[in-house]
Amino acid sequence: MSISSIGAEAAQAISLDEDPAQVVPSAIRHIVNGIKDEGSRSMLLSNVFCHLRHVGSYFFENNRCIKTITSAVSEIEPIHSTESIEPLGDAIVPKDLAKKIIEKHYASHQFPGFEFPLEKSFLSSIPDLIEIPHVQLDCTSQIIYYSVLLRGIVLELEAHPRRGNILRYLYLKCVALSDEWMKNVQDTPVDFLAASLMTSTALEGCNTDLAWKAFSHTCRISKALGYFSVDETPSEGDNQISSPAGTPLHEAEIDRNRKRFGFWHILRTDCLFRKSFGKPTLIPAGSWKVHFPDPTINGVDDESSRFIQIHFLISMRLGLIVRKYLDWITGGPDPDPVSHDAIIDNYIDEVQSILSDWDTASLLRTATNHIDVWLCIDVLIGSYEILIVLYLSKKCDSGHALPCQAVDLARKSLKTFQSLLGSTSHAFWGISPISMYQLLPFFVLCLDFIGNPDHENLDEDLVSVSWVGDYVEMVAEGRVELNPVIIIINAMVTACKQAKMDRLARSVTTGE
Predict the structure, then answer these.
(1) Straight-line distance from the first to the last Cα atom of the chain, in angstroms, rounded to the nearest whole number
(2) Smallest Cα–Cα separation from 285: which of 506, 1, 9?
(3) Segment holding 202, helix H or strand E
C-alpha cells in the first residue's frame, strides 16, 4: 500500500517550550496558577486538564465541578511540598531482578520490525558496571537501561515488593539524565532508541512536556536516519515482480520495511500528542514520503507476530483518520454548523467501519498473552476515545448536555478497561494508559453524572469512576510526584458520590 505526504515541506518553527497552559481553558488556568510548585502545575495543565478542552462549556457551566477542582487544587500544594522527589538509593533495583527483566526484554523483541541496537551482553552487564565507582556510563546507555527496567516492571505480571518505589526511582533516574543527554544527543540508532524510550518513560511519569521534548528528538533523529524518506526514490525492487507470499525478502528491503514500520508508529505518536495533549504537529505535511510496510517486515508470516501485524494495520488506519481530523480542525473547520457536523459524521463512520471490519472486541477475547492483550486494548480503547472527541466536537443540537453518544462511549471505555484490568493476570499497566486514553472518558462520565439530572445508571457509573480512582491510587503508590493526579481524580469521584446522595435526597423529599 502506497501512502505518502507530497508537496513542499512546510517550514514550521515550533517552540518546544510552548506554555502547556495555552490548550487549557482559562477558568482552569486561573485555578491551577494558584499552585506554587511548578512541577505540579505543569503536570495538571499538560497531562490532566488539557483533556477538558474537549468538553468546554459542559464543565464550566457547572458550579459544582468548578468548586470541586478549586477545592482539590488547594490540597495539592501542602501534600506535594512535604515529600521529597529526589531519586532514591542506587541499590533499589536488585541485580537479579534487573537481569531477569533484560532477559525477558530481548526474548520479547523477536519481531523483525523491532531492531534493538544495543547488544544483550552489554545491557546485561550494566547492573554490575554501575556498582564500579570508576566506571562512567554515557547518558544514552543509562536512559535505555533504566527505561527498559521501568517498562519491564510495568508489564511484569508478578507483583514486586515496593513496586511503586522502584518505578519512581527508575523514572527519576531518567529525568535526572535527560538534560545532559539532550545537550549531547547524536543522530544515531542508539540515541533514536533512547529518545523513543524516554518518551514512553516520561509519559509513565505524567510528564508530558518532557515526553514531547524527547519525542521531538525521536522525530529529528529518525528523519536524519532516513525514516521520513524511505520511498522518495524507487528502490531496485519496486519495478520488479513481487515475490510469492512467504518468500523471504532481501536484507535491503527488510531494512526499508523496518524503517517504514518505525515511521508510521512515529506518525501515530505525533497524532497522540496532538489529540490527547493539544501539542502541535512535529511532522507537517510534505515532510515525508513513506509507504506502508509489508506487515511481516521480512516476507515470512509468523503466527507469533499476528497481533503485532493486526495492531499495526488497525492503529495506522485510525491514526490517518485522526490526522485528517486534526489537520482539518487546525486549518479552520467549516463555520456552518450543518456542514461541520456532516464532516464529523464522515470521520465517525470511518472509525466505526474499522471497529466493525476488524471486530476488535472479539479480537481481544482471542488474545492469549499480556502483550497481545495490550495491543488489542490499545486500538479498542483508542477508538472509543477518538469517537468521544468527534462527538464532542459536533455543533448542532448540543444544548447544555453532553452528547449521549459520548457519554455511552465513555461508559463503555471505562467498563472495558475495568473488566480487563480487574483480572489478576492483567492487573498492572502503569498510569500512562489512564492519562492517554481514560481521562477524557472519566471526565465525560463524571461531568454528566454531576450535571445531568436525567443521568441514568447511577450505581453502575459510580462503580466505574470509583474504580479509576482505586486503580490510579494502586499504580501511583510510592510515587509521590503523581499525587496531584490522584487528588484531582478522587475529587471528581467524591463529587459524583455527593451528586448521587443529593439525587436520592431529592427523590425522598419529592416522593419520586
Answers:
(1) 60
(2) 9
(3) helix 189-204
Cell of 80: 506535594
What residues contact residue 97 under an 8 Å CB cut-off, 6+ apart?
A: 160
Q: How far apart are CA 366 and CA 406, in angstroms?
A: 27
**pLDDT at residue 478 above 60?**
yes
Q: What is the pLDDT of residues 389-430, one digit of tens each?
A: 999 999 886 666 899 999 999 999 999 888 877 665 555 788
- Distances in Å between the Cα of 438 and the Cα atoms of 388, 390, 417, 469, 476 are 11, 16, 8, 11, 16
Q: Are the beta carbons of 290 and 230 closer than 8 angstroms?
A: yes
Identity of residue 25: P
Residue 314: closest CA among 382, 246, 250, 221 = 382
Give yes or no for a contact between 185 and 191, defined as CB atoms under 8 angstroms apart. yes
Which grid cell sits at 31? 485555578
pTM: 0.89
280: phi > 0 → left, psi -120 to 50 → alpha, else beta; which? beta
Q: What is the pLDDT of residues 218-254, one digit of tens each?
A: 999 999 999 999 998 765 444 444 455 555 678 889 9
Query: Which residue, among 46, 43, 35, has the nearest Cα to 72 in the 3D structure?
Result: 35
Rounded to 10 degrees, the C-alpha dihedral 207/212/214/216 comes to -170
Is pLDDT at 368 greater than 80 in this prediction?
Answer: no
